[in-house]
Amino acid sequence: MAADLYLPKGLKTEDKLPAIILCAGTGGTKGGSQARVAPLFAEKGYIVLAFDYRGWGQSESQLKAMEQQPAPDANNEMTIKVKALRWQMNYTDQTEDIRAAISYIAGEPNVDPNRIGLWGSSYGGGLVTWVAGNDPRVKCVAAQVPGMGGARAPAAIKYGYDLATKQARGEVEPVPIETGKMTGKMATYANMRVNPVKNIGFSALDAAMKINAPALFVLAENEELSSNANVEAVQKSLLERKVPSSIHVIKGITHYGVYKEGFDEATQVEMEWFNKHLQGAAPQTPAAAAEK
Length: 292
What we know:
It is a single chain. The chain is α/β, with parallel strands linked by helices. The chain has a single domain, classed as 3-Layer(aba) Sandwich (Rossmann fold). Helices cover 30% and strands 21% of the residues. The chain is built from seven helices and twelve strands. Helix 2 packs across helix 3. The radius of gyration is 20 Å and the shape is globular. The two termini are 18 Å apart.
């Protein structure tokens, strides 16, 4: 996985700062919205990691064997023809990618491993919601215009299992390259592929019921791609369990407005949330300028 690490200027050897990991939405890369957000957080004294999921952006591809494996040699090595797998939307892999990013940042010498937060947008907003509910190392989360996807409805689960059987038996592509193209409003992402099999058991809605870390959800008033009602249900459950949680609705914008006219407002409220719940009682804030 390729990543960029953003450090505050004036960082001292003995500093132990909170960290934020940025998780992209559909087709997003570390050079896009993450590159806009990361310096803003770094300026306020956070160590920030922006990364590309496996097979996205600058990260290396996953590989699919295109021929029978030969016997390995004495070093258990072999030469084989493979196909690069790129731009797959895969809850199984991408939640693992986020957890790998947490593991990496926790080892940074200037990071306080007890103050790690997640920021996720759109598809990434759903991913960070799931990870926050399943990884106790996450101490704060901010999800903007989150897609609370995954296979949760009985019909979707049945379809996923039926497709899994066909994939396992070689009746369809085991990894959807031709058959996994996105449709409807998401068809604009022509390079992306989805595999419903990998969504089984990965419900952000269910995972949210296990979140114990402070959680912020930034919504678009005129959201057209996901369900604000789902997010409101999640936040209600958090409040019922007395988990600090908040919803901030940006008026007048649609889903992609969070990257445009709503960018400053979204980033400001997210900054305030991290400052409140991640900085700690005595935040160490170096000079207010970041260097990459």
